[in-house]
Amino acid sequence: MTRRLAPVLLELLVPVAILVAFGLWSAQADSFYFPPLTEIAREFWNTWVFAGFRNDLLPSLGRLLAGYGASVVLGVLAGLVLGMVRIARTAAEPVIEFLRALPAPALIPFALLLFGTADSGKVFLIVLGTVWPILLNTIDGVRGVEQQQLDMAHSYRIPGYARLWRIVLPAAGPRIFAGMRTSLSIAIILMVVSEMVASRNGVGYFVLQSQRAFAIPEMWSGIVVLGVLGFTLNWLFLRFEDRFLFWHRGSKGLLSTDRR
Amino acid sequence: MSQALQHQTGDGVPAAPAPVAGRDRRGARWRGRVATWVVKLAGVLVTLSALELASRTGALPRQWFPPVTEMYAELAGLVVGLPLWVEVGRTLGGWAAGLLLATVLAVPAGMLLGASALAFRLVRVVIEFLRPVPSVALIPLAVLVLGTGLETKVFLVAFATFWPLLFQTIYGVQDVDPVATDTARSYGLGALARFGEVTLPSAAPYIATGLRIASAIALVLAVTAELVIGAPGLGQAIIVAQSGGAITLMYALIIATGLLGWALNAVFSAAERRLLHWHPAQRREAGL
Q: Does pLDDT of A69 surpass 90?
């Protein structure tokens, strides 16, 4: 029992120490910017259970999932086409390189002009920012498919859609998921930023408004919500990835140390 | 992910030896390269013409999306003047300071965590929890504590770029070939020499990749800070142009920002290729 508990305790030692130290310090520091931990926890409970969840978190999540979902579909479809058609890939390269390098928040004013402060503008912005890693990784994954496998399938007269579904997509899967993971964190950032610049609700809006009103514990509770949101979505994504790529896990080697 | 488009251009790929009919092959390769450039140029021209047409015909509302020729004319006017470069300099200042701060903190920390399993396990939960926190969530806090100037921009850039640099360094150090380390040890190299001769060179490509990823993230965060809190720089100039109704100027500035990002990426990729050409092409990107 102790042998199994010891590693867990070891890993929890530092986080618990940090929390306790911050709690003790903030309780007696009387700092305006760093309210006591207990106050943040109370505010978290008051604000985010039910009311804040419905008014701010749900709209945020809706926009995030709509934009991210559209990006995955668009990026994978376009990536499959560009990965297989060489001339299209070459022709699209400079434009893709430019759009990928363009920092997505710089497009906020553009989205504002075209869509106003409506949800569609934020979804559009999330798509514009997150589609590139998925697209480029899909292209890479498709190009990495073994030619022998394709030739083999060809000579067995396996039809085109089955080749796509059973050979190309699984082979490109790990790269597609790598792109999707990068895009997920970009999507969260863009969700928050777009809500900070132009919105009537959402967690980003709530955090910035709280800061402007000097409602510091509320602001902290919103930051905690965003942190928990980022952590949870990332965790869910890794679960999801494990399910789809369970056959690929063995070849990940070292990378698996940080995913459980 | 940027490798996706790099290797199809054939850059950095050693030329295949062509003992027989060498001139013919070289000619064919040269023709192939020209054809590639023609196709690329055609892709750009088709895209720009489509946007131009969409605006001129009114498919995209013209007062919100002016023809691209006007945007580029505006940009050409900006490039010869000083104000654009002042804004570029302000954005790059925050970018560079934040990136430098993150590198100074993350690379030594990553070396330590990569080399010591105990240290890694002690802080694993903390970094696993902090890494997915969206850096922009800290904007309001940073504004309160650091104000709306350069300090906030640098802090946000440093916070966001710390994680990819840290993880790339950890992976790089963990991925050192144990045979190489053992060999160095059996030749009597001390811990310090082993670090300098074995660990550092084999972790270098990972750190370089981390820097390239971090440079892109740093630009995003610098522009975001300027957009949201109004720190001086390209992002603020974009917002000012938009709220002042100078739409063509706004698009010209957005294009300038994109070109800046593209140039930074090109510089980092080229530096990576040049400095690490000796390394086996295993510069894979560990999870971001």
A: yes
